Amino acid sequence: MVDDVFDEVGLKVENLHASYGAVEVLRGLDFEVPAKGVSVILGANGAGKTTTLRAICNMCDTSGTVTLGDEDISRTGTAEIVRKGMVHVPQGRGTFPELSTMDNLMVGAYTRKDNEIKDDVDRWFEIFPVLAERHAQMAGSLSGGEQQMLAVARALMARPRLLLLDEPSLGLAPLIIEDLFERFITLNKETGLTMLIVEQNANLALDMAQYGYVIESGEIALHGSAEQLKNDPAVQEAYLGA
Amino acid sequence: MTWNFDILPDFIFNGLSLGAIYGTVALALVLIFKATTLINFATGELAMLGAFLVYVLHMEQGLWLWLSMLIAMALSAGLGVLIERTLTRPFDPSDHLPVVLITLGLFLIINAVAGDIWNYQVRILSNPFGQFPSWVPSVGGDRFIMVFGSRLKYQSLGIWVTLAIALFLLGLILNRTKAGLAFRAVSSNVESARLVGVHTGRTLGFGWAIASAFGTLGAVLVAPQLGGVNPNMMATILIYALAGAALGGLDSLGGAVLGGILVGLIQAVAVTWVGVVVFGQLYMSILQLAAAFIVILIVLLFRPSGLFGTRRVERV
Question: Does A59 touch chain B (CB under 8 A)?
Fold first, then answer.
């Protein structure tokens, strides 16, 4: 129903390095995010998962090549990357707590100049009805799950071609996480929107995703289809608790 | 000791009109604080420069006063953008000290340059509310209308109406325009603003522009009460405005205006009326400045977030 607005585009990352001051967090990542798919990055705390997403968006000191579709965006500023079609939902949701739910969505459409913004608001209100109920409420007063939905809806307001999600399940109750991930799958199936998700909950993530990458100490240790990773003994031991 | 209540409304009116001006300057402080969490100590001097622009355009070039004010506000806004772009944007926004030092430096430089150009004597600037309808009575230099058996200065009324219009326009800009939405987003969460594609630098420049224009408006409104413009005119006003901003909550725009008005009332009623009129202690009038510090001290001690500010919750 919304497939008309999303393009399919993949992401290619080559030799990506990132550091915070003198600390090198990523040490030459290479991976590809296939178009239209759901891909997931797994890894222990401190492995560099969040930094990977931040580096892709040029939010820290980086070197290497990042290609979105067929365009090199390695030197593109964070705000400009949104205009290229990649939107990042940060860890901890990053809503604007003092702004109303409605204003949060409107600012999500900041980069757009078309006149279908209101239609999109209605569209996401239909898919996340709780946001419609809370449209005049300050985002800071929403529950964690509602804020996560708001963060995703806000990102979708930009009509991205590729969505980066950083630990969407963080701090949410299991039932809410399940509901949220079902919505992600539906969204991906209905729109073909490419997604790259960083997730601690490896079971859940591999159930949803088609592709996975495992990061250890700032390097890709393993990658493959979700099925392959699920059956990999090392992954089972380290991340699936088998 | 005489509790002279008959003239109390006079003092209240005075306090409310001075307070409205403090509120205007406090608003200029808070606009920048909200977006950057730093105090722009050059706010007052930028406003003074704006008042001198009005002086040049109106008194020297003979332009219509209100047109001169609009031009001066626009030029101040441009200067604000320029300062943001050249002097604050190159610095790491999370490190406050360098930028605060820069605003302090600007304070000194603008003051010295203005002193060099116009020297430090007071120059008369026309009162924006100097043209009166014939039915407005006058005693001495003051025009007023009678309210509650007291004199409500025509000028006070003018200040309130001007500020109300300016606040209304600010509300429209912040709540009904895309740039205003972006400014509120940057004030709320800089990183997320960048992640939805907002150019944060430009947006901060927009904040500086509005703040500088508001400062200039405040300086022009206060000039008649100081006898005119001079390079040091805003020094104490800035302190009262800071007290007002602290009282209202440094990140609340409405709080800044109300805080400024409250500081004006405290001065006029608690210090001047109670101290000078009731107790007959003339020395009390010099405690006006001290009153501002006492307000800041009490707020910092008992309610650091101010009356309407957001309480900071540090999460670990």
Answer: yes
Residues of B in contact with A102 (CB under 8 A): none
pLDDT tens digits along B222-241 = 999 899 999 999 999 999 99
Tell me whether residue B3 is in a domain. Answer: no
Residues pairing with A29 in the sheet: A16
In this prediction the pTM is 0.90
Distance between A58 CA and the closest CA of chain B, angstroms: 10
State pLDDT tens for residues B293-309: 888 899 889 888 888 88
Number of domains in chain B: 1
User: Would you say residue A118 lies in a domain?
Assistant: no
Q: Which domain holds residue B111?
A: 19-232
What is the structure's pLDDT at B234? 96
- Separation of alpha carbons B37 and B203, rounded Å: 15
Report the length, in residues, of chain B.
316
- Segment A172-184 shows an average pLDDT of 88
What residues in B contact A97, CB-CB < 8 Å? 188-189
Closest CA to B265 of B62, B74, B16, B24: B16
Compute the nearest-CA separation of A88 from chain B (Å): 6
A105 within a domain of the structure (yes/no): no
Best B92, B174, B196, B308 member to test A by mutation, with max A CBs in 10 Å, is: B196
Give how many domains chain A has, as a whole number.
Answer: 1
In DSSP terms, A166 is beta-bridged to: A198
Q: Does B203 touch chain A if contact means CB atoms closer than 8 Å?
A: no
Which CATH number goes with the domain that contains A216?
3.40.50.300
Quote the domain boundaries for residue A215: 11-93+158-239
Contact call for A87 and B195, based on CB within 8 A: yes
Contact B59, B123 (CB under 8 A): yes
